[in-house]
Each structure stands twice: as C-alpha cells, then as structure tokens.
Write a structure and sequence with these properties.
The chain is mainly alpha-helical. Among the domains are: 114-199, no CATH class; 207-343, no CATH class. Helix content is 77%, strand content 0%. Helix 9 (227-251) runs parallel beside helix 12, helix 13 runs parallel beside helix 15 (347-356) and helix 16 packs antiparallel against helix 17. The longest helix is centred in the first third of the chain and has 106 residues, at 23-128. The radius of gyration is 62 Å and the shape is elongated. The protein starts with a helix and ends with a helix. 21% of the residues are buried.
Length: 392
C-alpha cells in the first residue's frame, strides 16, 4: 500500500495542465475502481464466509449429531453389555428369593409335621381310653348315642369317615367347638370310637362280602356220628344265622330273596340244615338250651315270610320233641295239640308225635298212633309208618 501512495503524489501537476496519462495513472485508476467495487466483494466474501461458516456449522452440527448418535449408540451398546454383564446378578437375586421361599416352605412343612405328630399323639391317647369312656366323652360333646346305635350304623356303612359324617349330620357340631388341649377331647374322637365299636360288634357292613362263601360251606355240612363235631357245627350255624337275622332286622328284609342281594347267596338251605343239626345236638344239651333255641328259631321264621310258611310246623315239632326228650311232657303235648288243630293233613304230625314217645313211654306212643287212625288211612303217605308203630 505505501508504494501506491507515492505513485499518486508524482502524478499531481500544476493547475490547468492536463495530466499526462501514464502507466502509473492507469494503474491508479484501476486501483480506484477496484476500491469502489471492494465493498460488494467484501459483502459477497462475508456472505460466502458466513455461508461457509453456516455450512461448517451445519456440518459440524451434523457431525456433532452423528457423534451424539454414535455416542448414544455406543452408550446403548455399553448399556447392553453392562446389562449382559449384570445378568448374573439377577440370578443371584432369584437364588435369594428361592432361598426365602424354601425357608418358608421348610417352616410350613415343619408346622405340618408338628401338627401331624400332635394329631398322632392325640389319637394314640384316645385309643388308650375304654370304649365306655369314649361313648361318655361323645355324649359330653352332645352326641347322645349308645353302643347299639353305633353298631347299627356299622351295619349300614363300612367306611369309618362316612359313619362319622352321618353322626354329625344327626348331631351338628362345629369342628372348633371342642379342643383337645382345653376340653380333653374333640371331634377326632369319633373315628376312634367307631373303630372301637367295630372291633366288638357281631356283624358289620364290611363282613357282607365274605358271608356268601361262609353260608355255602355250612349248608353242605353232613351230620356226623361224632357229637363233638355236631356241637361245633351247631355253634357255628347259630352264629351265622344270628348275623343274617341281624342284617334282616336292620334293613327291614322279610324274604330270603331280598337277603340274597346283600349276602350274594340264597340262605334257605342253611336255615334247614341249622334246624337239623340243632335237633340232633340239643337232645343231649340242657333244657334251657332248648328254650333258648325255641325263641331264636321262631324269631328267624317270623322275620322271613317265606321261611315261616315252609318251616313253621317243622320247627314246632322239633321243639316239642326236644321238650318231651327233656321230660317236659306237658309243654311237648301242648305244642303237638296246637299243630294238629291248625293243620288239615295230620299223618306226618301224628307220626312225629307217636315217635317222640316210642323210647320214653311205649304205651303212650301206641295210644297216639291209634288216635291217628281216626284221621289217617292208606291214602296218606305216613299211614304205613303209623301202622308199624302199632305193630311194634
């Protein structure tokens, strides 16, 4: 720039003198022109610079944004990596939770075991009580039942829990109404009580399935010449028939066909065999045994209508013979007199009556046979037998 100023001074001339154009002057003129155009150029340059700066800023922003996004991506990646690295820590947390649950489960199991042991000890204590004591404790809880009532329930149901359920339906008692710790008994006593009764009863529902085979075995018995064998058979038959009678009475059964639905076989032949064995055995037993048998066999026949019609006369004649055998002639004669009055066909009755006295009072036996001839002739089945008694 200083060089340009020097050139400008040398071109100045005197007033009125036309300046001589020189290269320097031309250069100066150009320079002036250039200086006038410079502002626009500067503005353009400035604008261009601003534009560049804007572009740079934009690029910088873009780069910064890209950088930010890259950083963000990196952070996400790092976060994922960190998360992946921290994953085992979750397992540790799960383990801790599991451990807590396991501990809780152990505590619950421990309580359950303790409760089970307490219940076991309580039931053992109940089992040490006598049956009468258990019945009394049940009554103290409001269950007003006696031994026979428990025994009857056992004939209806074989499941102890179901029997207890039936009892509580009849006597509604809340489960928490009584406490073993405070009262000395609770409702758990009932199961023990029912089991104790089951051990002592003659017949219960759980026995029904086996009774069919038992009936078949005894109805096939052949009366022996050995009195001891017959005695044992009589006792066994008596017990079996008594159980059948108890079932029929409990369930209101009045025919052998209905009884068969429970014990699976027809017991009619068993009843007949029992009567035959009793007739053989009781001749040698005591008089009171005859009376006991009489009451029992009449009860059996009265329970079953079909048995009564088929075996009433046989039972009465058997008992009358046994009374005569034991010396009670009055009761024996009275029984035969009743049977003769009640029956139109008398040949067999007269034969049995005369036969009963044959070895005891022969003359009375002949007298009975002669009386029979008033009602019996050769048309009757037992006429020859009556005639033979007279001839002997």
């Amino acid at each position: 720039m200083p060089a340009k100023k020097t050139e400008t001074k040398d071109t100045v001339t005197k007033k009125g003198t036309k300046p001589v154009e020189t290269k320097a002057t031309k250069t100066t003129a150009r320079t002036k022109t250039t200086k006038k155009a410079e502002p626009k150029a500067k503005e353009t340059v400035k604008k261009a610079a601003k534009t560049k700066q804007t572009v740079k800023k934009t690029e910088t922003l873009k780069n910064d944004k890209a950088s930010v996004e890259a950083v963000a991506d990196d952070k996400v990646k790092e976060t994922k990596k960190t998360t992946a690295k921290k994953a085992p820590a979750k397992k540790t947390t799960t383990k801790k939770t599991t451990t807590k649950k396991t501990t809780a489960a152990k505590k619950t199991t421990k309580k359950a075991v303790t409760k089970k042991e307490d219940t076991k000890q309580k039931m053992e204590q109940y089992n040490q009580f006598s049956l009468d004591t258990c019945i009394d404790m049940a009554k103290a809880m409001g269950i007003d039942m006696g031994y026979d009532q428990y025994a009857q329930l056992l004939m209806d149901q074989s499941d102890t829990k179901e029997i207890v359920k039936t009892i509580l339906e009849q006597y509604p008692i809340k489960a928490d109404a009584f406490s073993y710790e405070e009262d000395g008994y609770d409702l758990d006593l009932l199961e023990v009580l029912v089991d104790k009764v089951a051990q002592t009863v003659t017949i219960k529902a759980s026995d029904y399935a086996a009774m069919g085979k038992e009936i078949e075995a005894h109805e096939g018995y052949v009366i022996s010449e050995e009195s001891l064998d017959n005695n044992d058979e009589y006792n066994a038959d008596f017990d079996l028939v008594r159980r059948l009678l108890m079932i029929a009475q409990r369930k209101d059964i009045h025919t052998m066909a209905d009884l068969q639905t429970i014990v699976t076989v027809d017991a009619t032949k068993l009843i007949e065999k029992f009567m035959d064995v009793a007739y053989t055995v009781l001749k040698n037993w005591q008089y009171d045994d005859v009376k006991y048998y009489e009451n029992f066999i009449y009860a059996v026949l009265s329970q079953f209508n079909d048995l009564y019609q088929a075996y009433e006369n046989k039972a009465m004649m058997d008992v009358a013979d046994l009374y005569i055998e034991h010396g009670d002639y009055g009761l024996g004669d009275a029984n035969y007199a009743y049977i003769l009055r009640e029956n139109q066909i008398k040949d067999y009755i007269y034969y049995r009556y005369a036969k009963a006295y044959e070895h005891i009072d022969y003359e009375k036996s002949r007298a009975i046979a002669n009386e029979a001839l008033q009602f019996v002739d050769d048309r009757y089945t037992y006429y020859p037998n009556i005639r033979q008694l007279l001839e002997n």
